[in-house]
Structure formats: structure tokens, C-alpha cells
Amino acid sequence: SVCNDGSSAAYYYSPGFGEGVNNWLILLNGGGWCITDDGCAKRLKDRTGSSIYNDQTTYFGAIRSANQAENPDFYNWNRVLVVYCDGSSFMGNAFHPRIASRGARIFGALMDELLEKGMANANNAILSGHSAGGLAAILHCDEFRALLPHTGRVKCLIDSGFFVHAPKLHGAQRRAEYFASVAAYHGFTDKLPQSCTSKMNASLCIFPENFIKNIQTPLFLLESKFDLYQVCVIHTHTLHKI
To answer: Which keywords, in A-to-Z order, does the entry hold (predicted)?
Structure first.
């Protein structure tokens, strides 16, 4: 499992302790997408396309914090922050001459390793993500649940990852074309939810609004009313000439 530049996929891990030792919180980082060789090549020079630019350690704050006062619900859980370096929302399975797109393999390898670390015996497990990582958490939510058949509670938490098609709003065709290009370039159009692809053009099945009702795992959505993507979609107006 490798990043766009061929460097090793990576994650940060803070072990659980006390009553939280058998609880797991997995956070998939975000960082947008790329849809061409040249576009992806630009990402090879930073953390969005390579793991070599990541520090050996990182600060865990907010929902990742080990401070009980700051993070009373999850402070003593096993907390995992997954580096995002594939440009495909952890879904890609393609190889281009200059670019490796192995997001799906990254997710699979990550799950295998965490299961070996003890997640297989989890009492509670949450798959979370933000932005492009949030979309990944939606797409992988039921898969995550299936990996933990003996876990009492498995849920997904999505932070700013509900990217809308909004077909009746301005720019819908442009949004559809862009996300179709994401799926096509990274080779996962045929991996999108079958509950959706059996009913409509598969390229539209990357938009959660078209398949989320079929997700069986409890899923919680967090979206700021000031989220840049949603603001641009909902408040974009057409120019009228006179």
C-alpha cells in the first residue's frame, strides 16, 4: 500500500488505556483529489501525495486528544489518524506511469494492521473522517462494520464529507463531471455502491445523497453551514446580462 509517489502509506497511533483500551477511533484525513497525471504530480511534492513530508510525530488535539477535560468521550480510546496521500478518498485501484493510485489498498492494509493490534476485540469502534476522508468514511462505512462482527457498537462519523451533487442547483453538471473524473482516473467507478449503480449512472454514485439511505451502519453527519464546498454550491448564482 503506497502513496501517489510510491512512498509507504502511514498513520499515527495513540494506544488506548484504562476503560477505553478496547475502544477504537479511526480518523481518515482529508486533502482533496486529483484527476490527471499532471494534477497528481503536483501533489507528490507535499503531504497530499507522499508520506515522506510527514513528521515522525504529530499533535493529537480535539477529538484525538488524550486530555480528559478536552476530549471526555474518547480520551482513553485507541486513536488513529490516517495520512491521506492517495488523492482518491481511499478508494483508488489504478496505476499510471508517474502516479500510483492505491487508496483502496491503503484502507485494506490499515484495517488488517489495526485488527492485529487488537481492534478485532473492540467493544466500540468508530470510523471517522473529514473532507475527502469523510467521503471515504461514508463509502467504507458498511465495509468497516463487516470487519468487526463481534464488536457491540460500530458507527461512522463524517465531518464535512457530504459532497452534494444538488442536480437542481447551478453547476450540477460540472460537479458531476469532476467527481466522475475522480472515480475514473483512480479506477474505482465499478467499486461504488451497487445499491446506487443498479439504479443510475455509476458516476453519480460517488455523491452520498444517492446512496446514503442504503448504508446499514449508524452514521452521523457533521457539516458546518460555513463549509466552503457547500457554500459555493448552494450560494452560487448565475450571471444575468441585460
So the answer is: Cell wall, Cell wall biogenesis/degradation, Hydrolase, Secreted
What cell numbers appear for 241 in the block? 446580462
For the purposes of burial, counting CB atoms within 10 Å of the CB of 75, is it exposed (0-12), middle (13-18) or buried (19 or more)? Answer: buried
Kindly report the CATH number that applies to the domain delimited by 11-234: 3.40.50
The residue among 166, 110, 116 whose CA lies nearest residue 140 is 110
What are the residue ranges spanned by the domains of the chain? Answer: 11-234
Joined together, the cell numbers standing for residue 188 give 474505482
Distances (CA, A) of 225 to 187, 234, 236: 32, 10, 15
Whether the predicted model's global pTM rises above the 0.85 cut: yes
Residue pointed to by grid coordinates 458498511: 142
pLDDT digits (tens, 9 = 90+) for 32-77: 999 999 999 999 999 999 999 999 999 999 999 999 999 999 999 9
The kind and range of the H/E element at 82 are strand 78-82
CA dihedral 2, 165, 157, 92 (to 10 degrees): -10
Residue with grid cell 486530555, as numbered in its chain: 67
